[in-house]
Model the fold of this input.
Amino acid sequence: MSLQRAKPTRRERAKEDKSRRIVAAARALFAAHGVSGVTTQQIADRADVAVGTLFRYAASKAELLIKVQNEKFAAAIKEGLAAADVAPRTVPATEVVLAVLTPVVDCVREQPENGRTYLHELVFGDPNEVNRRDGLILTEQLEGGISQALERFGRIEHGEATVLARVITAIVHISATATIHLDQSAADLLADIRTQIDTVIAPRGSRDPVPATQREALS
Done:
């Protein structure tokens, strides 16, 4: 006997439509003006809902930002992990880790204020709030991908690779949120992150310069 999914009610469809409009409005306004340049009233007006209605879907502007950024973060992680999956086994571990991280850094630097606020909220906000919880799950996926890259390409034991992945993720968070780095481009930030990662894993592998042909294999 096959089970058919119940057709959404009119009320459920209306609720989903409002949710989509609110998220779309927040996404557009955050991208154009940055999170600090947008008010919940502006988001509500653009979504054509009352502010009180907006707060039934998200308790704060920060939660809306996290929801919007989670979508971008998830896509960036997927892209980075795909790059690691097709990397030749001869590519050094640092390069593979950078291949995983490059889309992530590009994501959080696309709009630096939004990316910085997003990472800060994930670390210091309520981990039980649903959108933050989803973001933290994404961070765990990123750590898992880095750990696998270290095991596969750096021949690092699983337990140590897991710890190193957490260290590398912390490097990215600090580098992307520190005020001193706000004016850095994504490329400059990645170069700095590369140096830090290389230093962290150097005792376990070669620090010889990576041939251009091997870097091109990941591009």
